[in-house]
Every structure is written in C-alpha cells, then in structure tokens.
Amino acid sequence: MDEMVHIFDHPLIQHKLAILRDENTGVKEFREIVSEIATLMCYEATRDLPTREVEIKTPVATGTFKTLAGKKLAIVPILRAGLGMVDGILTLIPSAKVGHIGLYRDPQTLEPVEYYCKMPSDIAERDVIVLDPMLATGGSASAAIQFIKNYEVKHIKLMNIIAAPEGVERVRKDHPDVAIYCAALDEKLNDHGYIVPGLGDAGDRIFGTK
User: Binding positions for uracil (predicted)?
Assistant: First the structure.
C-alpha cells in the first residue's frame, strides 16, 4: 500500500470496529461507536496540521507554545451514512464548517449523480475531509471528491471506517493527490457490491432502517 493510504491499527479503533461488525450490535450502540471511531481517526488524520508559536503567560511564567496556524478546515459527509461521522469530528474540531453532498447511482449508467450539494461559501480556502463509513466500489467517493474539486478546493482527504481494495484502487486512480484514511482494509467486494466481511449497510445500521 502506498504512502497516500493510511490504515489505523490502534487497539482502541480495532476494538470498537469489531463491535460495529457484530450483527447483534443495536442501532444506538452502533451510532455511538461510529462517532467514537471518527473522533479517534480525526486525531490521526489531522496530525499534519501546521502550527505556529505564540507567547502565552501561564500562572508560573511566560513561554512560547504551539497553536494551530489558522488552517481552516471543512468536513463534507456523503449523504446519508457520512452523517454518522460528523459529530465525532466536531468533538475535536468544533470550528470546522460542514458541507453536504448527496449522490445516487443512475440505474442505467450506474454512474453517481449529484442530487444535493451545499458547501460553505469559503470552501475553496479550506482543507476538506470527505466522510463516508464505507469505501466499496469507490464510485461515490470519487465523484464526491471531483464535485468538491470543482469548487477549486486544493487539499482533500478521504476518511472511511472500512475500505475494500477495489474502492481504494479507484480513488487512487482517479485522485492520486487525495490521501485515504481508514480503520480497516477488508478482503473484497461481493457480487452485490458489499464489502466482505464488512459490517453490512452502514446507513441502515446508523439510522435503523434495515
């Protein structure tokens, strides 16, 4: 795997992911754990944020310390499952703005079609993290990234909880400049486009619609 693909092997993430995979995990717990994993992944995915030194007076002495260098961030969940990851990221970065993008697959062409898109007005000035729990074929993620690039966004990351090799390959081919962050790279896609072993339909399990 190349340096643009980051797979997190942290024990806390792997433990929580195992609970997500369990078919007996209920909606409430599933939703909470998706959010928790997003928080933990965000911690790692923002490791390269630039910092600057500022002078701060503590109760003991004055010193020079690091703060974020004013880099503006935005998160863009792919509807609907991506919504489950938003609150977990805002826990760490409450000032991040949130865009939304909705896609559906055209039954004839099988290509993703945008049905909803609402971005912050200053999206072009922000680093963007695209959120979707599952990276299966990669079609929706690739299309979403391209829609965001159309707003002249220069720095984009993709964050998924579980990815299939096919999806990673598609995004790397279409968008070699976009880093992918995921908690697990699973075995393959089945004939129905589901990730194996995966965790089923993330949207249904987050929103209780299965």
Answer: 195, 200-202
Separation of CA 63 from chain center:
36
Partners of 172 in beta bridges? none
Q: Which of 2, 64, 109, 191 is catalytic?
A: 109
Pick the catalytic residue: 177, 201, 205, 209? 201
- Which amino acid is located at 133 in the chain? P
pLDDT tens for the chain, 210 residues: list them. Answer: 678 999 998 999 999 999 999 999 999 999 999 999 999 999 889 988 888 999 999 999 999 999 888 668 999 999 989 999 999 999 999 989 999 999 877 777 767 888 899 999 999 999 999 999 999 989 999 999 999 999 999 999 999 999 999 999 999 999 999 999 999 999 999 988 889 999 988 888 999 886
Which residues are annotated binding-site positions? 80, 105, 132-140, 195, 200-202
The yes-or-no answer on residue 186 being catalytic is: no
Please report the domains of the chain, with CATH numbers, ordered by start residue: 5-207 (3.40.50.2020)
Widest CA span of the chain, in angstroms?
68
Considering the entire predicted model, what is its pTM? Answer: 0.90
201 classed as catalytic: yes
Other beta carbons within 10 angstroms of residue 116's beta carbon come to 10
Q: Which of 39, 87, 105, 174 is catalytic?
A: 105
The question of whether 105 is a catalytic residue gets the answer yes
